[in-house]
Records
---
Amino acid sequence: MRIAFDAMGGDFAPEAMVDGTLRAAREWPDTQFVLLGVEDEVKPHLAGELPTNVQLMAVTQHIETDEEPVKAIRRKKDSSIVRGCRMVKEGEADVFISAGNTGALMAAGLLVTGRLPGIERPALAPIFPTLTQKGMLVLDVGANPEARPEHLEQYALMGSLYAEAVLGFERPRVGLLNIGAEGGKGTTFTKEVYQRISALPLNFIGNVEARNVLNGDCDVLVCDGFSGNILLKNTEGVAKAIFDRLKKEFTRNAITKLAAAILKPGLKRFATEMDYKEHGGAPLLGLQGPVVKAHGSSDARAVFNAVRQARLYVEQQVITRISDELNRLEGDEHR
Amino acid sequence: MRIAFDAMGGDFAPEAMVDGTLRAAREWPDTQFVLLGVEDEVKPHLAGELPTNVQLMAVTQHIETDEEPVKAIRRKKDSSIVRGCRMVKEGEADVFISAGNTGALMAAGLLVTGRLPGIERPALAPIFPTLTQKGMLVLDVGANPEARPEHLEQYALMGSLYAEAVLGFERPRVGLLNIGAEGGKGTTFTKEVYQRISALPLNFIGNVEARNVLNGDCDVLVCDGFSGNILLKNTEGVAKAIFDRLKKEFTRNAITKLAAAILKPGLKRFATEMDYKEHGGAPLLGLQGPVVKAHGSSDARAVFNAVRQARLYVEQQVITRISDELNRLEGDEHR
């Protein structure tokens, strides 16, 4: 297996990307790792000799976090993001992982790697932390903000297959993000999606309200990219605000600092559970080849987790399964 | 001033409703309070003689939390919710407050109290807690899940006027909930809303991302009812999940319990800040008369806060101001 890596993307790049890759290279000596990066920037972090299964591939351009995605991938054809997506397209890599500009990665995935035949819109599918510690795959969180009902039908299918093959859920419970729990609730849009998903051969459990996401009420949550993005960012924002505010209370004086020190192991355990980075990256489901978005604030550990997940994504041949399932359903319809 | 009260709605009704009303009646002896409730259920909580400014008005029906809103208000015309909305419509009360079935209250507001001329869709506008402790008015959170851009334009106008008159914000900063910070981000829908609000005589600060809501990045946040509902329920759900989980860590053993006891005042202070109930109720903006939704889990204190806010809503003549502003803008357009 050959994994291409964006050495340039993410808040702690290139250092965290390099460290994570080297760690993964030691863990999986049978896997080839290709680091795509600007030589002058990456080299200083490659102390000593490279493991035989790691290779640096020089690129000359870098897409910044705040660049306009489509313009960036058109102008910077020799950036790590465009090169990585092309490697997957051309079979030079089995999977590409990047913690860089999310919009640019989605655009390159769509325009360079390309859609899987039969899929109308790819979806970005991160794993949300849940109190059950099993996590929940949520799709789409913004690859396609103006979704149509048939897109969400395909998300349900792709998400279920991925959750089963890569995340280890048995008959994943698929839920629809909605503003009421009972069937028949919501908008014209969600009502149509509900009907469509009901007709699929999935373990569809119906509507799930936003208040129950962290409880892990389902394993795969389907939503349009606009709502999904609101959900993702709000969850991150509320958790961050609460932890920041708690810190203020805990460091108020010497006594509270002492008390907080006693509670620290428990708080840390909880913070780890709530950490996106523990769960690996977010696949861009619906492309012809595996492209995975790692969290922007990925450290070496997050990179390592993303590799573990990406390996399963490839090994389990999820994309072939999605393609087969689409053909099978298509066949059923025409019978 | 005459305030009508739904004694039957909310998790702690009728007791909390009665207690809150009696407390408010003592605080504001110049205000008349009308408790709408089923006599047999409310009477036991009215110990001793009623203050001269509190009156029990008997109704014979009650709309439960899980009833289908429109059916319920059609079938139960002698329920507290329908009677209260009618009192406002007919000038028998200056404002109606209910902690009952939200959907039924919205339906009764729309169908019984009626829309303000010129307003296409009323909006439910709760106050979100913020780390700045000033709160943020968010509208709409579900009165109108299938909003059109012109509806959000009216929300911006109504929300700004309400936030200035009732919540004390000077030139309230109006933001648009969106999935990117820069102008031009988002969907066709949000782009059109952005243009429309930009053209209004408001302090519009542009897009606000869901991750920044608790930071209080704006004073009035405008969104469609579907996204707003997701935002509201997710915020509640994430906060609840985190506090529940912290409780588990804090009560793990005798030592952590002791440490938690030391931190308790700070945690309590924070929990109070984050408590919706501290901020009063959510007006249904865009109706001909003031109707206020109090939180379903309202206790006597929340009821009291809702009264304080409702009094300002009436005194500041917010509805007249909204109506005048609509006419003025209409006039400008036709000039």
---
Amino acid sequence: MAAPLGIALVGGGIFMKEQHVPAALACPLVSVKAVWSRSLKSAEGTAKLLVDAGTPVDVYSGDSGLEKSYDSLLKREDITGLILALPIMDQPSYIEKALAAGKHVLAEKPIAKDLDTAIKLIGYSKEVSIETQATLAIAENFRFMKGWAYAAEEIEKLGRVTGFVVRHNSMMQTNNKYYNTPWRTKPEHQGGFLLDGGVHYTAGIRKLLGEDHAIANVIALTSLITSHLPPKDTINAILQTKSGAVGSYIHSTGTTMQAYDFHVACEHGYVKATPDKVVTVRGLGADAKSEEKIFEKSSGVKEEVQAWAEALISGKPHPEQTPELALGDLELLEKMLTSGDEDGTRQKLEYQ
Amino acid sequence: MAAPLGIALVGGGIFMKEQHVPAALACPLVSVKAVWSRSLKSAEGTAKLLVDAGTPVDVYSGDSGLEKSYDSLLKREDITGLILALPIMDQPSYIEKALAAGKHVLAEKPIAKDLDTAIKLIGYSKEVSIETQATLAIAENFRFMKGWAYAAEEIEKLGRVTGFVVRHNSMMQTNNKYYNTPWRTKPEHQGGFLLDGGVHYTAGIRKLLGEDHAIANVIALTSLITSHLPPKDTINAILQTKSGAVGSYIHSTGTTMQAYDFHVACEHGYVKATPDKVVTVRGLGADAKSEEKIFEKSSGVKEEVQAWAEALISGKPHPEQTPELALGDLELLEKMLTSGDEDGTRQKLEYQ
């Protein structure tokens, strides 16, 4: 077996510490060589987790001088790729630098704060990869949760999609650890948590519907219910697929309501999907037969890191990690926000 | 105690036989003197139920000649009022004749097939009642189901309404008894079952939200999923209240999905309401307290007939049976259908 790929972890936030560190440690195909974060304190926090697990790493940070800078990290020849989880606004410039330095990147979703930035980033990555061979993958862990994949297969078996309802209602309280990330408390990215968490759900419904029922256009109203969640915390949208099916997308991070429903109706039954539990209902009324399948709880991050490493080794990008797919997730979200900004005007989608 | 009010039952359909006959028999304030239906056969069917219960009645019908005609029924001085349940398209002309003859009317919802017809009917009823003193009440049994009233009180206690979701998904199958009413199989009224059943749900959400959060405007897409349910069987809508709250309204009579959710979110919690069960959730997240209240199953028809009779005796129309309220239910439905016909254009509401 070849030596594991040397990688670095870029970013020292909650998701990096709680998800990517264990995922990298669990993946036999990679070996973490270094960490970088904007502050030394945060980088050391990430490093400690690795050291405690028996993986000594070099510590780089934005406040450690030139020798331990991001540029310096990117010069290391023993590092093949980066797992990058930075604030949404910062990611593109760090990704571009890494690709230019010839490092493969697995960057946290969303691909960027908006479509324009994402399209420029994809263009740059294509261009620079001709020279450096470095590849860009976008991490969307919901695509690696087993429930979605199983549910998508079940939907496929039930005939034409005839309608759907996506509903995620919750309250992002001020004592939530994610809320208390400075860039999230005062978001500069559109939609705030609606984008941050929301791309998971656009990815989820896109996965369930599949390409034949890709979303063609959206109408939405957006609102701010809870004052600590600017600029908006709620989307009520109507989505129409290119095949003509109509569905509703309801997402609020600022409501007292609690709901987590992904329902897709087909000609011969329907599927209720969550990452961990999928219910397939075949038939109608009294004759309907319901089948429930439970999956082990998983954030999907271990699976996505493993998939990324396998893709690097095989030289074939993983189809669930392409920037184009992440662009589609972002577009669906952004067009709902845009429709809301324009008081419910219909928005066409191009990247589905 | 005064003698019971003499009434007639007009219409011999399923709802008349299964609901209004038992309701009239159960109400000590009324005494059924006669029945009328378009066909003698149907009228005799209704009459038999009454006779079997010890209430002999005279039988009138559209095919029994002048002496046993509707006009002839309306001339009877021992009949004070009519309970009328006819096809949606037919009701207004029968209502007008009855009011002109000085008979009080309790007419099944919806008030008419469309707003124009309803507004003309209300205008006529106001005019003619100056002469004849006859009153028009519209029967919306959902307003007399205990769950809605209790849920509305709970919502009131939870502070400002911040959002809501109405969802009623089911399949009207071709073997359903209501489907096999000729005027429903080939509907001439807008929306088909979306109007017929749907006014119950517009009444339901209007009851829950109350006047302070009346719906101000709607955006909707409508579709026909199942070919036996023309003209449309599905609404996906976004509703905005005059207070600024936004909600989703999802109604399909032609989907394999099953759902019956009325959720109203407020500042301090939310309410999940159905006619028979209401769950109030106070507070947020781990601190939330949930309280469930179950009500005896009831269609509300007995209660509405009793309320109508009491209103006739007191001379004060029941506030839950006014034509204006029924106009509001119809308007909300019609504007969603119109928005759908116009591909999602925003529709303002005037009668809420």
